[in-house]
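3.2 Worked example (two chains)
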Amino acid sequence: MGRPKKEAVAELSTVANPGVVIKANARLNLTPNDLEWTDHVLGLLSEDEKIAGNPTTDGLRRIFEQALDCVVIQATSDVVQSPTVDNERRATVTHNLTYILNDGSLPDNLKRRSVTGSADVYWGNCDKVYRNHPVAVAETRAEGRALRRALKLRKVVAAEELAKEVDHIDADSANKINNTQINFFEVFGKRLNINISKLLEKLAINEKNVYNIAYDDAVKVITTLSGYQQSNDIPQDVIGYEDNWK
């Protein structure tokens, strides 16, 4: 008579103490109510789905159905607040996630679950690299929060929720033209042979110092330059690029 087979054992590092390894029975059906649940879920992620130990939203989305043994039937994002000058270009997004558990022991009305996650993003809580895309950042953060809530992860935040390179600038500065927009003026001014100073005057943007131009006015200039490029119909009174427009 052969010896009984041993059940497979997996080694997991705890979130609180990454250097401490615990042994968990890989065949145990862990649930979100178990202390090892968070470690188990994070163990399903690959290393490139974590940033400084925090799971990425992409990673949580990939392993979500596997971890909960469910099927996602709907995932939608709603923009609650769009960025404007009056709200400091703040974007608020809510993500709604609906899924059905593959659990035969539950009645049908308890298999269907829904969670919601929300996030708001503005210049003061967003990495400077992504500051010009507050809606996209808010959407990713909202989805990450919804996934974390559904997975019932403890003491864990999604990597995208952590801002690492935030400039300590005031609201007035955040509402003014940025370097990316200034560079756009210069590149397209040269490419299309447009006099930026004359274009600003034509658009009734009368700031003597280009660095004091309002953000929304800068957007208006960029939209105009893009339109000129597409139509190739440039008014004669703005032709003639000059370097001294800044």
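3.2.1 Second chain
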Amino acid sequence: MSGLTWQVVVLIGLTAAVGAYVQAVVGLGLGLLTAPIVALLEPSLVPTLPLWLALVVAGLNLADEHAHVDWRSISWALPARVPGTVVGAWLVTSFTSEQIGIALALMVLVAVGLTVHTVTVPLNPLSLTIAGFVAGATGTATSVGGPPIALLYQRERPEVVRATLSVFFFAGVILSLAVLAFSGSLGRTASLLALALAPLVLVGYAGGRASRPFVNGPSFRHAVLVVCTVSAVVLLVRSLA
């Protein structure tokens, strides 16, 4: 990690802690916040570093709320992530990160806009399969794979959302890392930095866990939409710049 300045490491670490806090409350957020920041500061660390950090938080959330997992939905969304992950690995080698980022940001903003105007997409095998595929592709290519699934679940109980997303993220991130390793795109520096930043992620998660009782009902849905929107705007600005 000799090529990284301490200022960059500290900023990434603080961002990861905030992202872990948000994900502990909402069910997603670490990848959405860290991926654009890491890409701006040190593009070579994307997508490996955000994926490793997301794996830690997803594992903590899953261990904490595994009793609330919606396994029926997982049985449709998770298998669809496999071909999506392969497509994501292909995108990494075929398009620039800017092109992928712009496409993803616009997709998320359109989805958020539709849901704000009370367009509700039902939770069924078709919607879950499509969301799982898209999340696999975007998660592998940009580290931002949460919005497609989260937008489907925004009206469910917070504990169900967090637990179910954690299963999807945990298994999906492992798959994404495996594919990146197979394709030779798994960076050693990013992996070592993830290990060094793990304590900050744990601190952020602990704070978010303590804040859960204050975010539920309509406020939880609004939090999901805000997290998705902010991540999309940051990703769009970064990609255009």
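3.3 Remarks
The chain is about 80% helix and 0% strand.
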